[in-house]
Every structure is written in C-alpha cells, then in structure tokens.
Amino acid sequence: MIRCIRASDAVLDLSGGDSFTDLYGRARFQQVLLHKRIALSQSRPLLLLPQTYGPFRSRTSARAARAVLVGAAEAWARDRPSYERMAELLGPDFDPARHRLGVDVAFALPAATTIPPLPTPLASWLGPDRGRPVIGLNVSGLLFLDEASQERFGHRSSYRAVVAALLRQLLERTEARVVLLPHVLAPPGHPQSDLEASLALLAGLDDGHRPRVCVAPRPAGACEAKALISHLDWFCATRMHAAIAALSSGTPCSGIAYSVKTQGVFATCGQEAHVADLETQPADEVCARVLWSFERRDEVRHLLAEQAPLVREAAARQLGEALARVAPLRSAPGVASGRQT
Question: Does pTM surpass 0.85?
Fold first, then answer.
C-alpha cells in the first residue's frame, strides 16, 4: 500500500462515504485513518471526496480527524450538517477554498438499463399490470444481527423490534407486496449481512403474511441493484447508499436513521421529513413516520422528478472539479510527473 501511494500523483479518499467516524469502533476508525495518514506521511496530495465527518465520540478521534483535514489538499462534505461539523472541527484552519460542500458521489451512479431475469413471484409483482404497490425494505444486518446495537448506538428502541413491527404494520394496513432488499452482501454467517437479517425477518412472519413478502435475489452489481429499486413504488432503507439509490432514481423513500448522517443526505433532495430517527424516537413513532412517508409516495415522486436530476448533475460536476484539482498537483513540490493517479 505504501509503495502504491508513494508512486501516485494524488490520493482520492472516500472513507466509504460515512466511515470517517469512531461510531463503528476504534479498530474501524484506525483502519480508515491509516490510508489518509500514509498519504500525508509520503507527501502525496490527499483529496477527501464527499463524505460524512463524524460524529467523533472521543477527543482523540476528533484530533486525529482534524489533523487529516488540515493536511488535505482538498476536503468535500457530502451534506450541509457534515460541512458545518467539518468547519467547527477545523476552527481557524477552515479554508472555504479547500473545504467544500458537495453531495454523495453515489447520486451519480447510473442504474442498469435492464433488470436481469427475476425469480417468481417478484417478476410477476413488478409486471406492467402489478395491481397493487410493490415496496422495498432494506434491513441492516449491522443493527439487526447485533443484539447489543441498541446500547452501542444509543437507540431508544431495539432495531430488530422496530423493523419487525414496521413490516407487520405495512402488511396489515396496506395491500402492498414487500421486497426485502439486502444492500450489504456479506458472506453467509457474517455479523453484518443484510441478507442474513432479511432471511431472519422473513422467517418470523406468520403464514398468512408470508406470500406477500420475498427476498430480492443477489444483484450482479450496484447498477443492477439501483435498477431494481427504481422499479419499486416506494422504498424504506436503513443503509445510507440503498436510500441514495432510491432518491437519485426518483423512487419515493423513507430512511431509518441510526446516526446523524441520514438526515443531511435526505435533505440534499429536500426529503429530510421522511427520516425516522432511532436515537430520538420510540418504536411507535419510527413506524408512524415511515408509514406517513409511504402514504405520501405519489407526492414525493413528483418532487424527486424535479430534485433528483439537479443532485445528479451536482455529483458529476463536483467530481470534475476534484479531478481538475489533481492536474496542478502533479507539478507541486515533491510530486514527480509521470506517476500513476
């Protein structure tokens, strides 16, 4: 890794979009921090592409993050709350010319033009004469499979209990068919697998409801997953980039937030009212907010038809600006020309 970074003209770093935080534990934070520190130690220009900064629970983590932001050639935040946290963290070292406001790069991800053949019953559900709404539910294995997640993240209610109650209410109060759509496709038995969480949720349903619920097949890639989400009538996601796939493709969406990152990204499309917060709301309020969002899906679809193209354009434009920043860095002191980017 060090040799690769040393041979590069610049390093563009995403931190997975939302991993530049100690929210997921010290080991994960150190892993994310390491790449950035190596780039700075090797005098490589570091560009932090749009991402969330924080929250930082410890002062040590905040100081380490601040040092990276000070040393970076450029740093983009993916939403306004994160941008404001970055400015607060930097204090007098905040530089508007280097510290920028952007949007998550996943907004620019294209959807596949076609959906691969789908299994029964999903293929018939999504047909042109579907007859009733087909909605998606993304269940986070990170929260569902970890019995200690409620205490770990400071939630008012058990996530497992919340999504079980939400699915039951969606089936009882609507005529919709529900697709459980995993986003993190980890190997079998992995403690963060959305697929494992979806299968466990499905197994807990009574026989009367089970025919209206299925688990989506594993997509060939992110573009195929986005294409499937774009064909849904409404979507509820806990994983941030699953929600972005919906918002950016114009699919009405609600988000179940387990940290501060969700609200800001939804606000990018003017959809912050469609976020339910596990940290501040009890289980019944979370379910009520999500059901409220479902009832307004037609109104939201019209709003996203206007907002989503603008956000997609911003995502493409900012990447061009970031890459343009790389060109003059090639001739900066300590950067040898002809190296790989």
Answer: yes
